[in-house]
């Protein structure tokens, strides 16, 4: 294990930033980033699942037989997703209404399964938690950023607060589904420009 | 053979633990979730169908035992008379149960209005039932206990285009409301008479 804990954490913030550098996990990225709040909520839910499932997969990595590992990972992930769903219903019901079907869909989020298979199944629990946390925070910030751009342009608000004067005509295209693709494409372009320097 | 047994044991233990954890969380959050649903989903639905009532229908409610459970009835007072009761029934839609709040005018025996509470229907298709007032308006004034059906099934209700299953679910829920009302009418009337308005 050449990398330190801090490196395992920080790689999720840039090198392996899920939606922008790896271009993974696009379904929730495109679907729920209508506003900053939704983006961050989805990111935090995913981070929770990611950290918990990474920890458990890592703890059980010597117990789980190789042939049925995927089935085991899915059970673990699905359990935590349901936990998130129940907790969100109990403590953040309006957010649950907004995110709706995309919460259960975290089960099939390729980032979560990908980290379990590629990282947690081969590394010690502490490193796996750092990895999950790093990727999760990266994912949350990416979703927040995308949500911010779309909300500011599409609704003229940031986290529900008005940013422009009343003369501002909202660019509603940005909060529609096609706007998500365009916005993601432009941001990918900018990030690649910055990354290739 | 040994490997096979190990696989079965690991999967079984994992699923059992997962089930146990989820059951524990479910039962400990159930009460909170119910109150959140009442506040954010049923509340607005009740207020919407009992529009113009002079009381607060969400707090003016009574319970009638149905089998082993208790069913909540929400009271709407119009012109000083508690004449309308709203209660929830379910019909099976495309993505699970669709909860429908049905309001009945006790005096005329006609449906006062219907409104959808909880559902998991496809966004943009079945989920339009939330805002599709023309569809829901069709139930207004129909005598409670009528066999409501969509036109495709030989009934009178025009289904929402592309969302026959959801439309059917609402019809089923309204039919069930009729059955329930038929069974409980004496109790409902008795309880209602205690509300002065």
Q: Can you offer a commentary on this structure?
A:
The complex is a heterodimer of chains A (197) and B (197). Chain A has 197 residues and is an all-alpha fold. Chain A has helices at residues 5-10, 18-22, 26-32, 36-59, 69-91, 93-99, 110-120, 125-155, 177-196; strands at 157-158, 161-162. Chain A has one domain (28-191). Chain A has 9 helices and 2 strands, in the order H-H-H-H-H-H-H-H-E-E-H. In chain A, strand 1 (157-158) and strand 2 (161-162) form a beta hairpin. In chain A, helix 4 crosses helix 5, helix 5 crosses helix 6 (93-99) and helix 7 (110-120) runs antiparallel to helix 8 (125-155). The longest helix of chain A is centred in the C-terminal third of the chain and has 31 residues, at 125-155. Chain A is globular, with a radius of gyration of 18 Å. The two termini of chain A are 29 Å apart. Chain B has one domain (46-193). In chain B, strands 1-2-3-4-5 form a 5-stranded antiparallel β-sheet. The model of chain B has no long low-confidence stretch (mean pLDDT 88).
The total domain count of chain B is 1
Determine the most extensive contact between two protein chains.
A-B, 23 and 23 residues
What percentage of the residues of chain A does DSSP assign to strands (E)? under 5%
Q: In terms of per-residue confidence, which ranges of chain A show pLDDT below 50 for 5 or more consecutive residues?
A: none
- Assign a percent range to the helix content of chain B: 40-55%
């Amino acid at each position: 294990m050449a990398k330190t804990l801090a490196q395992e954490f920080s790689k999720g913030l840039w090198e392996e930033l899920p939606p922008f550098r790896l271009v993974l996990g696009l379904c929730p990225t495109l679907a729920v980033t209508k506003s900053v709040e939704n983006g961050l909520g989805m990111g935090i839910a995913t981070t929770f699942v990611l950290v918990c499932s990474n920890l458990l997969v890592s703890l059980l990595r010597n117990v789980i037989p190789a042939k049925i590992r995927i089935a085991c990972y899915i059970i673990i992930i699905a359990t935590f997703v349901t936990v998130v769903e129940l907790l969100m219903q109990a403590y953040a019901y309006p957010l649950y209404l907004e995110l709706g079907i995309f919460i259960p869909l975290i089960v099939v989020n390729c980032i979560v399964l990908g980290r379990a298979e590629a990282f947690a199944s081969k590394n010690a629990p502490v490193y796996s938690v750092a990895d999950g946390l790093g990727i999760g925070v990266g994912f949350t910030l990416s979703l927040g950023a995308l949500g911010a751009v779309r909300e500011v342009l599409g609704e003229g608000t940031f986290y529900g607060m008005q940013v422009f004067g009343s003369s501002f005509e909202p660019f509603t295209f940005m909060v529609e589904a096609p706007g998500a693709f365009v916005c993601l494409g432009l941001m990918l372009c900018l990030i690649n420009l910055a990354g290739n320097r | 053979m040994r490997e096979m047994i190990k696989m079965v044991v690991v999967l079984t233990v994992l699923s059992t633990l997962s089930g146990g954890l989820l059951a524990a969380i479910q039962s400990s959050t159930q009460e909170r979730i119910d109150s959140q649903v009442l506040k954010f989903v049923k509340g607005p639905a009740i207020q919407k169908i009992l529009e113009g009532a002079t009381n607060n229908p969400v707090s003016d409610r009574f319970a009638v035992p149905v089998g082993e459970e208790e069913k909540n009835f929400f009271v709407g007072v119009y012109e000083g008379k508690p004449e309308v009761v709203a209660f929830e029934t379910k019909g099976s839609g495309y993505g699970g149960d669709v909860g429908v709040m049905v309001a009945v005018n006790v005096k005329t025996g006609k449906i006062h209005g219907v409104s959808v509470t909880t559902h998991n229907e496809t966004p943009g298709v079945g989920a339009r039932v939330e805002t599709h007032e023309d569809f829901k308006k069709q139930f207004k004034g129909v005598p409670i206990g009528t066999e409501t059906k969509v036109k495709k099934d030989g009934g009178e209700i025009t289904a929402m285009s592309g969302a026959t299953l959801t439309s059917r679910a609402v019809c089923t829920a309204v039919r069930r409301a009729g059955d329930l009302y038929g069974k409980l009418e004496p109790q409902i009337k008795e309880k209602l008479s205690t509300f002065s308005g």
